[in-house]
Amino acid sequence: MTIIFQNQQSQPKQRIALISVHGDPAIEIGKEEAGGQNVYVRQVGKALAEQGWQVDMFTRKVSPEQEDVVEHSPGCRTVRLAAGPVDFIPRDEIFDHAPEFVQQFLAFQSREAATYPLVHTNYWISSWVGMELKKHQPLVQVHTYHSLGAVKYRSVSQIPMIAATRLAVEKSCLESAERIVATSPQEKEHMRSLVSTQGAIDVIPCGTDVERFGAISRQSARTKLGIDPNKKVILYVGRFDPRKGIETLVRAVGQSSLRSSADLQLIIGGGSRPGQSDGIERDRIEGIVAELGLTEITEFPGRLADDALAIYYAAADVCVVPSHYEPFGLVAIEAMASQTPVVASDVGGLQFTVVPEETGLLAPPKDAAAFAAAIDRILADPEWQQQLGQAARTRMVDKFSWRGVAAQLSDLYTRLLTEQPTAAPKELSA
Ligand code: UDP
Known about the structure:
About 40% of the residues lie in helices and about 15% in strands.
């Protein structure tokens, strides 16, 4: 077996592993525990394969019905490893099974008669897997945090048992990985001020599909969804998780000055399964919607599949991202790529992607009055709304396409592999 992969578009490159223990790149996005990280790994994996890398994306198998291997495109597949029970486990309990994940990864390499000279790990659990693998073979480790415990624990009321372990692993990874990829300058700053002053960090943002988002006009999107062209549509897209701040948005709409004069419509898109924790948050939000008398103007379309997403973003007048904390926030760039201005919390990656007064507005997190004022300003001025949307689209095409992001990652991998010849793959034969 050869470990070199070649496609038509570029020079042959090496086999690399993206490790995302809890964020399966092949599953439906938008449900509980499946969000930006899953999208990031899948899109980066596919775009890297287009650039000639042979990409295997490793994740934990969570149901016996799931296939062990999913082929996404030439040179890009998801590989599911059984580590711990083949069942859903809450994120904070997965770390107990990380040693088994390492063993399964090594066993997979033996079966394939190949090693991976570079692993790009995602989220702290996978960073530990990467650090362990380094004890077994020469390896370049690149790591993306997706969320930093040191930041997250500042905004939650209950600190979980796993916190001390997570913080220690995050520090150790920052200090030992060949390169950390921060997705915004704000995230890099948090790493430096809250985690460690040691370690090498590059800033490479997340991306979005600028061909899919932005391909449909507002008018045709509204026709497809049966939404009156005169309505003012306010959109949320994302998981039902208290950290996402959906409550702030609902309360903002409740106190909008346009409520009596304009025909407002609030759409809260995202999935949930009965009995799961996102179902609990959804029930809570529905309760607030009812309490504020907004039931008539609010719609919950549930999980939005890829094609529907592009239509909803295009149909909206404004997309609101009211998170308490957001390491990057893919929804904001998807909306902006769809030419829809964004009102977002003035936190984390949203401060990097949304340019206030140019592509949308920022408001302090949890401040419903400030969100109401920002939403009203945009909705009250259709001409300005359009200018913001156009500037947003231009910024996304220029700076945030997956292809551009993958090109930056590809350059980084090539540089690191050249600098670390010990991590070059061994000649292996099947
Ligand atoms: N998403 C989706 N369908 C939904 C809700 C969300 O496909 O119904 C996707 C959304 O388009 C985005 C991702 O889930 O790509 C959420 O990423 P983000 O970074 O905004 O938040 P996270 O879930 O990582 O906290």
